[in-house]
Amino acid sequence: MPDSMFDRLRLAMVPLPSKSQAQAAPEKPLDLGKVRHAAVALVVAPGPQGWSLLMMKRADREGDPWSGHMSFPGGHVEPSDADHLHAAMREASEEMGLKLKRQHCLGELSAVSSPRVKAGPKRRMVRAFVFALSEQPELTLNAEAASSHWFPMQQLLDGEGRGLFDFEWKGNKMKLPRIDLQGQRIWGMSLGMLDELLDRIRRLNRDPEEHA
After folding, report:
1. Relative to the CA of 115, which of 2, 47, 124, 181 has its CA 20 to 30 Å away?
2. CATH number of the domain that 106 lies in?
3. Which phi-psi region, left, alpha or beta, contains residue 161 (left: φ > 0; alpha: ψ -120 to 50)?
4. Is 203 a domain residue?
């Protein structure tokens, strides 16, 4: 039976295919150019408060629809990338100086897509990969990252900072879920990825014998 956060994370993930079976990055956008493929890295490592999850606050940039948002390091899949996993590792290196390796990857979460809109940026299909490191690395942020944050996994599992906030888009007012921690707000697609990871860990905690 798993006795550490690392073991629970490893068991919670969808296993990766072998490198020879890995899905190649598409050389052309799918759906007649209406979808752009992207990949992100969810990186966990032990810290002063136990296992923690790394996120970055995106720099304020004109034309970036996610400007100033909390996100995971990642970006578009390029034709030069061997596969989506390679894209996630490359982007993590470029944005935060992370030197991730395939053996650090525990597995993959479900792919998510940005909402359909008639105008604005193309839809993005994002694949999320979970990495575990033995210690928190020294980070070197590029111009795309305003700051980095390590959020303790136990706080996230305990639901600290959970709530709703008012959001208005094209005149429509709504309440959306969020997590407020360390003076930062996690919401949107990033929160969806995080919630899937937390749900997988919680299921393992409830039914450990199924994965023993």
Report:
1. 181
2. 3.90.79.10
3. left
4. yes
Domain count within the chain? 1
Q: Which 3 state secondary structure label does DSSP give 13?
A: coil
Would the pLDDT of 25 be above 60? no
Backbone angles phi, psi at 94, to 5 degrees: -70, -40
Would residue 162 count as lying in a domain? no
Helices (H), 47-177: 84-96, 153-157
CB atoms within 10 A of CB 177: 14
Which residue type occupies 53?
A: L
Give which of 144, 103, 125 is closest to 193, Cα–Cα.
125
Tens-digit pLDDT profile for residues 35-89: 788 999 999 999 999 999 999 999 987 766 667 899 999 998 998 898 899 999 9
